[in-house]
TrEMBL record:
<keyword id="KW-0235">DNA replication</keyword>
<feature type="domain" description="Helicase ATP-binding">
    <location>
        <begin position="202"/>
        <end position="368"/>
    </location>
</feature>
<dbReference type="InterPro" id="IPR005259">
    <property type="entry name" value="PriA"/>
</dbReference>
<comment type="similarity">
    <text>Belongs to the helicase family. PriA subfamily.</text>
</comment>
<comment type="function">
    <text>Initiates the restart of stalled replication forks, which reloads the replicative helicase on sites other than the origin of replication. Recognizes and binds to abandoned replication forks and remodels them to uncover a helicase loading site. Promotes assembly of the primosome at these replication forks.</text>
</comment>
<dbReference type="GO" id="GO:1990077">
    <property type="term" value="C:primosome complex"/>
</dbReference>
<dbReference type="GO" id="GO:0005524">
    <property type="term" value="F:ATP binding"/>
</dbReference>
<dbReference type="InterPro" id="IPR014001">
    <property type="entry name" value="Helicase_ATP-bd"/>
</dbReference>
<dbReference type="Pfam" id="PF00271">
    <property type="entry name" value="Helicase_C"/>
</dbReference>
<dbReference type="InterPro" id="IPR027417">
    <property type="entry name" value="P-loop_NTPase"/>
</dbReference>
<dbReference type="InterPro" id="IPR040498">
    <property type="entry name" value="PriA_CRR"/>
</dbReference>
<dbReference type="InterPro" id="IPR001650">
    <property type="entry name" value="Helicase_C-like"/>
</dbReference>
<dbReference type="GO" id="GO:0006310">
    <property type="term" value="P:DNA recombination"/>
</dbReference>
<keyword id="KW-0547">Nucleotide-binding</keyword>
<dbReference type="InterPro" id="IPR042115">
    <property type="entry name" value="PriA_3primeBD_sf"/>
</dbReference>
<dbReference type="GO" id="GO:0006269">
    <property type="term" value="P:DNA replication, synthesis of primer"/>
</dbReference>
<feature type="binding site">
    <location>
        <position position="430"/>
    </location>
    <ligand>
        <name>Zn(2+) 1</name>
    </ligand>
</feature>
Amino acid sequence: MYIDVCVQQNFIGFDQVYTYSTKLGRNDLFLGQRVKVPFGKKILMGIILAIDVENTSGFEAKEILGTFEDQVFLPRDLMVLAEKMSEKYFIGPFTSLAYILPPSNGQGIFYDQGEFKVENLPDLNRYGYLEGQGKNPSQEKVLNLLKSQGPLLKSEILDRLDISASPVQTLIKNGVIGPVKEEKTCQPPQVLTPDQERAYQEFYQDQSLETLLFGVTGSGKTELYLHWAQDCIERGQKVLIILPEIALTPQMVERVQARFGSRTSVMHSKLTDSQRKLEWTRMRNGQVDILVGARSGIFAPMENLGLIILDEEQEASYQYHQSLRYDVREVAKMRSEITGTRLVYGSATPEVSLFYRAKKGDIKLIQLKNRIMDRPLARVHLVDMREELSTGNLSILSNVLHQKIQNTLSRGKQVILFLNRRGYSNFISCRHCGTAIRCDSCDISMNYHKTIHRLRCHYCGSTKPLPKTCPVCGSKLIKPFGVGTQQVEELVKNLFPQAKVHRMDRDTTNKKETYFSLYEDMKNRKIDILIGTQMLAKGLDFEHVTLVGILAADTSLFISDYKAQEQCYSLLTQVSGRSGRGKDPGEVVLQTYNPDNYAIKTACQGDYQDFYDMEIKQRQAYDYPPFKKLISIQLTGPDKEEVYEATRNFYRDLTGATRTLHLVGTKIIENPKIKNKYTFKFQLKSNKADLALLRDSLEWVFKKHMKENKGKIYIDIIFER
Ligand SMILES: Nc1ncnc2c1ncn2[C@@H]1O[C@H](COP(=O)(O)OP(=O)(O)OP(=O)(O)O)[C@@H](O)[C@H]1O
Ligand SMILES: [Zn+2]
């Protein structure tokens, strides 16, 4: 019999489907099974993609050498998903499957026809006394312990009694003790407000595959997710809630766990490998009803999915780029289509292109226009920092913000101060010639870190000492410029010495524990003023925060991207949304140098519709999505000349192959060097009608170039949304 297999190896050009022969029977093989195959002179791991196929390769098929002992059954729909991703993203079958395979390719995960063997996994069950009596003293000890202490884990029993495992095993085998169902007291769902109730019902009025839940911050979207999830679970189906990593706060996790108890799984980037394996196995084995996960959660190995929720749909981190060769939103849609699972996008600031589709009626639109209990959105005060400067206030805190912090503190309420890290941190520059100190390997301005008294690069993490004089002109006037969170912290501590001030950014919260404790302290009001970056923008729900200060609203406008306005609007809205979520109304002070910018203006008024109306006109006028398809092509590699040459060739080949289409291309531009790698990019705009043909040509040129450059140059093709 012949089988189709993809193999694990480094060279991208070999990532294809190969046909092998086997003497094993149908019953010994399954899709997604790991096999050992001869490949050239090597023996490689392969994965079965199809069984009982014809050998159409024109060569005599080699025989597989065997199967791996530990085996992974992938749900059928995930195998299909891998195939579709491979087509869509021009990646080989193995690369595509690699996203889906369990940690360590499933090594050490054991199944027996879908049932996993308990002894190979950490023991999750707590054991308790069931019936009968033990026969020997060790068994007696176990029973006495369980009677006095209540249910315990197997490992806990062994720890406390200092006995071998066999008496415990015997007791389990004889049914004297057994796993106890953990009855976690699950929180009942909250009673929906009339507005939520309407939205809840609207969802069931039809069976649209895609739904956009568009609700202002604090309108109770999450509560609705949990209601729909519960319906699903009661029907015996499974639920995925996907969030951007930074929105996967302890708060969110707590909320879901409180509702669904131990049949919840959580997946994020900070899990260890063995935790990941355990969660994977629990899901695969049907022990999980609902997963809350960051982007790779979309590959959760659960069968019988009833609902996929994609929260904060507009979040840029869902989009593919170098480390991520897929767009989570697209993959979610593919999975929903394959399995017929309903997909809900949630957002307070939907992506303009998605909202356009919703307004056109391509996807179902459900709105929540007000905050829960009609709590008002925070009032926003716009401060023009140029005026502030002209009245002689050189501080990064405007007089208004200063005043309001004082008032808020005196009322015993909490403050969040937000600083956009990107572009506004404290780089070092020469006041004389303007030179900024850059990272040697990244071509990016380095930041001054007071705690280590050195400069540090935010991309690669390398540090160097502060120069005494400018390396270009020799001037001594080389000083920190701009502000970072550390500086704000220092300033605020000086201005409000009684207040408890904390900082939350990547430097202070690398460890999971610090993140948790900061969050606990904030909740328990042990912090008066919390200072931070993007991390603060999403998902946090502290009822006593009544003032949010945005120190410089403009900085996200400097990104050179057609989405700059959209991202600015979204960020400002999210940050402002952290204020006044409890009973007391909130305020926001928004400091800016561009008070006339429409993203900033509309964000102040909290009016997405206004913003959307202006933005969509711009998109139309300049031929951007959703009106035209925009495709970015980006080449990255270690040798500048080579990368540039390759980009030019790519451009030339592509224009050649697409001569009959009406494409508009940009110039080739150079991106900043990152980690000693050079990047050149160009963009194409295409009519939707031409897209299918363009994709074919792109695939052809892409594969040709990938083969030619033998993996030396990385090629990113991004279909912008
Ligand atoms: N039906 C309800 N009854 C009482 N409180 C509710 C109800 N629904 C939501 N809440 C509370 O209102 C607050 C905001 O709700 P939720 O977090 O669900 O909003 P959200 O729209 O997801 O917010 P955001 O998008 O800003 O993170 C929460 O503290 C939540 O517990
Ligand atoms: Zn660097």
